[in-house]
Amino acid sequence: LNCIYQDNAGLIWIGTGTGAFSFDGKAYERLDVPENCADKAVTAFYQDSDTVFWIGYDDGSVLAYDRYGMFTRVLSDDDIESRITSFVEDTNGRVWIGPYGNGVMLHGDTSTRVLNVDSGLSDNFIYAMISDRGNSIWMGTDNGLNIVDLTKGKEVVTTLTIADGRPDFIVQCLRMDEQGHIWAGMYDKGICRFDRESNAFIIPPGLEEWENGVVKDLIILKDRIWIATSGRGILEYMISSQSLNFYEHCGAINLNRTRSMLHD
Q: Do residues 150 and 92 lie in contact, with contact meaning Cβ atoms separated by under 8 Å?
């Protein structure tokens, strides 16, 4: 199991090493895809504002599933040859596709182009992307955080690395809270929130000395933060008491290498 996602109809999608499955609360159903994508590992899902459903594969293939149930091959493994880690849509309606190690591909109605280190990114190895409430796309990479501002009609890149006060080089996941703050899950240093007013990274009290492994995913709620790790299972950080609860097992299920979480 690689990833989990809920579409706007309420279906839960699970990306596995042998394809995509939907879950309606009662039964699982394998998604019927073109033969050349059957049995491939699914690594990312996304649904855009036109309800087009995007599926990214471990080998770099990308399928788009329109509202009429028709598939269109957007990219093939010959185009990228590296796993798709994330998708995000910008305010211009373009879908940004993150193939790990190849920068990001901006897919519009008529063309696809690449944004990479030659365009100003700090790194081509992108783990996560998210759109904020303004006009920016945030990217977590192997070399810090990239903020791409689209306000002026073109991509203006700001990079935030260790030299700019980032606690860690590697950003594995990105999430936005109800106030619009961007949170990052890191490789060595746990989690942090970026405060745009002070232009500073803030680590929650009690989490400064992180020894719980790689952060793979986050869920930010009003009173707590759920943290999926590779090493210590699922952590529940209580914001008011600044305390941690650890969930390393659920019955016979070992949670010590949790990859993805969903708040439905």
A: yes
Q: Is 211 exposed, middle or buried (0-12, 13-18, 19+ CB in 10 A)?
A: exposed
Residues for the chain: how many in total?
A: 264
Q: pTM for this structure? A: 0.91
- Per-residue pLDDT band for 76 (boundaries 50, 70, 90) equals low
Give the C-alpha separation, 106 to 88, whole Å: 10
Question: CA end-to-end span of the chain, whole Å?
Answer: 18
The residues, any chain, with a CB within 8 Å of residue 52's CB and separated by 6 or more, are 64, 65, 66, 67, 95
CA 234 vs CA 7, 210, 223: distances in Å: 24, 14, 16
Give 79's pLDDT tier (boundaries 50, 70, 90): low
Tokens 């305390």 belong to residue: 243
- Extract the tokens encoding 93: 């309606």
**Average pLDDT of the chain, as a whole number:** 91
Q: Buried (b) or exposed (e) across 219-228, using 16+ Cβ within 10 A?
A: bbeeebbbbb
Q: Give the span between the Cα atoms of 217 and 214, in whole angstroms.
A: 9
Q: Under DSSP, is residue 220 helix (H, G, I), strand (E, B) or coil?
A: strand
Q: Work out the widest C-alpha separation in the chain, in whole angstroms.
A: 53
Measure Cα distances from 42 to 19, 23, 31, 48, 228 in Å.
6, 15, 11, 18, 19
